């Protein structure tokens, strides 16, 4: 049986390597397949424009596409055009995959900024434009593949994604009012493999975020406290004290809960930002090209 991964970037490649290690044939669809590791069989395709050839024995399909640009057109290509072409390819091949999983985004709640707790039952509130397109992509996949799994990921970080770490290293943490933030390490976002392979009866929707919605200044202070493992000439990291929360007024942002994902049997390698950023500071791992 074949696993097809549409969008073999950093996350898709990490998931593909795990599928391959479990004994699956993995077919990775992307514009530059020569960048894929040998364990993944690459196929050159621009899914935003073309319908690929899909093996009839396809058992698992993962859509892990990311927009080329943060424009409306970029999001439309990634979340509407590409899924439509891949689903059409499955129909043409007569493939009947056991699992289809769409990697989506918690941006479907982008207009919620009052600190409330959100889970899979929370009504969506996408911002106009790109947020609406992300949700429209979910609806498209559900319409064409009603049993598909949707995994909404919060802020993805990991090897090669250390923007906040660099800001703290350079002595600039953040400005503006403090707020809740939500994130998930790339390696834990590979829960894709768990949900499509290890769960007998998966739910239709999961929220992929780590176990602690974190106050932004707390994350910055933690990273600053780790400066002994950062380059000695990077300066003294600091946190904008005017932006820190006073403990009395409600925080902005949102708090995402991963209870459903944990109930599925998934175990986080990096349950909070502390373990995840400690891993990054140790210079372990690499971002897949």
Give a summary of the structure in a few sentences.
Helices cover 31% and strands 19% of the residues. It has helices at 10-21, 72-93, 130-144, 163-169, 186-189, 191-197, 216-225, 259-263, 273-281; strands at residues 2-6, 25-30, 41-44, 58-63, 99-105, 114-118, 149-153, 155-157, 180-181, 183-185, 205-208, 214-215, 253-256.
Architecture overview:
The protein has 289 residues and is α/β, with parallel strands linked by helices. The chain is built from nine helices and 13 strands. The strands form four sheets. It has a seven-stranded parallel sheet, sandwiched between helices. Strands 6-13 form a two-stranded parallel ribbon. α2 runs parallel beside α3. The longest helix has 22 residues, at 72-93. The radius of gyration is 19 Å and the shape is globular. Mean pLDDT is 90; it is low at 229-243.
């Amino acid at each position: 049986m074949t696993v097809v991964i549409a969008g073999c970037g950093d996350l898709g490649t990490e998931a593909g390597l795990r599928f391959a290690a479990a004994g699956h044939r993995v077919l990775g669809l992307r514009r530059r397949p020569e960048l894929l590791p040998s364990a993944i069989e690459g196929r050159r395709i621009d899914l935003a424009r073309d319908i690929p050839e899909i093996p009839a024995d396809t058992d698992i399909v993962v859509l892990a596409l990311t927009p080329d640009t943060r424009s409306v057109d970029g999001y439309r290509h990634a979340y509407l055009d590409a899924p439509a072409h891949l689903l059409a390819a499955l129909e043409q091949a007569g493939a009947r995959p056991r699992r289809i999983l769409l990697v989506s985004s918690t941006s479907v709640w982008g207009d919620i900024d009052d600190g409330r707790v959100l889970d899979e039952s929370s009504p969506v509130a996408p911002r106009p434009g790109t947020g609406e397109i992300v949700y429209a992509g979910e609806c498209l996949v559900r319409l064409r593949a009603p049993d598909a799994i949707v995994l909404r990921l919060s802020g993805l970080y990991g090897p090669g994604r250390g923007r906040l770490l660099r800001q703290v290293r350079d002595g600039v943490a953040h400005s503006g009012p403090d707020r809740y933030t939500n994130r998930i390490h790339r390696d834990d976002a590979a829960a894709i493999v768990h949900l499509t392979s290890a769960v007998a009866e998966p739910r239709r929707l999961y929220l992929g975020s780590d176990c602690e919605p974190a106050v932004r200044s707390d994350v910055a202070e933690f990273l600053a406290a780790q400066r002994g493992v950062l380059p000695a000439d990077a300066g003294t990291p600091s946190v904008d004290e005017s932006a820190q929360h006073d403990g009395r007024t409600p925080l902005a942002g949102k708090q995402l809960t991963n209870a459903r994902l944990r109930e599925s049997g998934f175990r986080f390698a990096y349950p909070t930002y502390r373990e995840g950023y400690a891993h990054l500071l140790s210079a372990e791992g690499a971002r897949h090209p």
